[in-house]
Amino acid sequence: MESHSPLNEITHEDAAAVADDGFRAHLDDGAITDYLVVDDDETVGFVTLEAGERPSRERGRYLDVVNLEIDPEHRNEGYGSAVLDRVTETARDDDRDYLTVSCEWDNDGARRFYRDAGFEPKQVTYARSLD
Question: Going residue by residue through the chain (131 aa), what tens digit of pLDDT does each one get?
């Protein structure tokens, strides 16, 4: 299993206990789109995309891959690559300038996957707990 920062700990063991308004806000946000990854009527993962714009930049229209999750038993079968191909088409169709994605620093598999898919490291985000 990939290592994750303690800042990413899930607050609810039971998904049904999560406040509905948080999910509703996510679903109502016009910049965010969620897709299921389905093969032969079996859901094998999901991707969350968020469109954004940085108006101060000449090439400022981007599409961010917020989440890309393929079920562990279906990894290394081409699903992630196929999703990124589809995301690239979507971004081009929407006249976006570039794609962004981030992953945990210690998630070597994800970093390798994104590099192999043509992504280049651009910046590093640091986090510090306030506890």
Answer: 455 677 667 666 776 666 667 777 777 777 899 999 999 999 999 999 999 999 999 999 999 999 999 999 999 999 999 999 999 999 999 999 999 999 988 899 999 999 999 999 988 888 888 98
Start-to-end C-alpha separation, the chain: 26
Contact 70, 45 (CB under 8 A): yes
Global pTM value: 0.81
The Cα-based distances of 126 to 27, 51, 104, 119, 129 in angstroms read: 28, 22, 11, 19, 10
